[in-house]
Write the structure tokens for this entry.
Amino acid sequence: MVKLGIICEGETEVIHFDTPSFRQFLSQFDLELIGVIETGSKTQYFGDRLPKYRDILLGRGAERIITLIDLDCDVCITLTKEAIPQFNDQTVVVAVKEFENWYLADSKALMSFTGSSVEILTPEEDTDAITTIVNLGITSKRFKRFPKSKPRLAKAMLNNGFTVENAANHPNCPSAQYFLTKLKTLASAGR
């Protein structure tokens, strides 16, 4: 079993990854989640800051690390990946535009949370996924308002069945697909 650590930008990802259900999902690939660390901001990935987060996970026994970063308004995925310090035991995954865009790709969870039957055809092209999700819920009268809080939205989506696997099944969410592919690759490399 490969011991995995995840470094991510914010609390949203921790809410999703540091759960029994995600750990169970990983176990089918012979991956054991050692820990998830949030950096607090994208700037923490650059220069000499990333190694301190890596050292924490390596100290806990991680053998491989996935570094998940949002594309945000960066020009391209490749340049974003190349700007992050590289390590042999690390895989960098760039979520397009943000991790929250993956919510738009999980149609079932999105419908459950917002009460809207709208299917988002290109979830990674949305520049403000949180506003889109809140507006869907307001339009369908599921709720009158919802705070634009990433942690509150993460918990709500999780409670409504969101999974990265469902997002990766969307034909136009390649960054979620890439994330899952990398998990599977790490598992097969450890066998």
Observations:
- The longest strand covers residues 31-38.
- DSSP finds ten helices and four strands in the chain.
- Residues 34 and 60 are 7 Å apart (CA to CA).
- Strands lie at 2-8, 31-38, 64-70, 90-95.
